[in-house]
Design brief:
GO terms for molecular function: ATP binding; ATP hydrolysis activity. This is ABC transporter ATP-binding protein. Helix 2 runs antiparallel to helix 3. Strand 7, helix 5 and strand 8 form a beta-alpha-beta unit. The chain is globular and about 50 Å long. It has 8 helices and 10 strands. The protein is an alpha/beta fold. The two termini are 33 Å apart. The structure holds adenosine-5'-triphosphate. The site of adenosine-5'-triphosphate has 11 residues, from helix 1.
């Protein structure tokens, strides 16, 4: 469905993305793995249309991406992005006005599932609560591609379990999920495909089970081998 071919993104002194190609299909959860500075966030921003690549192409169902393609993509960046004076209910209404595909009832259900108070203002929320809120707004959109940049960051170990199961339960068969995390062992349990990014390019990719069988090791051990 989504195909990136030979993407390159250079900043003045850094090449963030270097000849990177990958493909994602609906019904799968993909892990975007790599150490700090390897290019994961830049890649997501390029796919979300927030950063323009210097070269390379991105297509959805064979059609080059335009500003209209943005409706197919729900992107959750690492940064929190809420107005502090709004409470969770207001934030839901704001998103509903912004995105035609935003399901307010689903959002309220997700708030309850993540034990967030609909009346609490963003400015009074802890970083872990804001992390959950970001996930709730992102999963409430009916998008074909869901990109979550570090969804488990700042979330305690008990809540992480819940978030992982919430993500898995709220993904339909016609949605593709691309998720980055440094918590590789936690991602390993749920992803069915892994992309290993190093210096802005994809150095290994494949079906998680096939990779484990062919290499005789876990995704975590492959990660350690590639990046040690
Ligand atoms: N706006 C920018 N200007 C200049 N350099 C940038 C910019 N954004 C990213 N970079 C550089 O591009 C490279 C890739 O950064 P990116 O944020 O994509 O990595 P990452 O894999 O997401 O890292 P992390 O795991 O730490 O979030 C890094 O060397 C970074 O310093």
């Amino acid at each position: 469905m989504l195909k990136c071919e030979h993407l390159v993104k250079k900043y003045i002194t850094t090449t963030a993305i270097s000849d990177l190609s990958l493909e994602i299909e609906p019904g799968h959860i993909y892990a975007l793995l790599g150490p700090n500075g390897s290019g994961k966030s830049t890649l997501m921003k390029i796919i979300a249309g927030l950063v323009k690549p210097d070269s390379g192409t991105i297509t959805i169902d064979g059609v080059p991406m335009t500003y209209r393609s943005k409706k197919d993509i729900a992107y959750m960046p690492t940064e929190a992005f809420f107005f502090g004076y709004m409470n969770c209910k207001d934030i839901g209404k704001y998103y509903k006005d912004f995105f035609d595909d935003f399901d307010y009832d689903k959002y309220m259900g997700l708030l309850a599932e993540m034990e967030l108070n609909p009346d609490q203002k963003a400015k009074s929320m802890s970083s872990g609560m804001l992390a959950k809120l970001k996930i709730a707004v992102t999963l409430s959109r009916d998008s074909r591609i869901v990109m979550l940049d570090e969804p488990l960051n700042g979330i305690d170990i008990i809540a992480r379990e819940k978030i992982i199961s919430t993500i898995v339960r709220n993904i339909s068969d016609d949605t593709a999920v691309l998720m980055s995390s440094h918590l590789v062992d936690e991602l390993e349990r749920i992803v069915d495909h892994a992309f290993f990014i190093k210096n802005g390019t994809c150095v290994l990719q494949g079906d998680a089970e096939e990779l484990r069988v062919s290499r005789g090791k876990s995704i975590v051990d492959m990660y350690k081998e590639i990046y040690a």
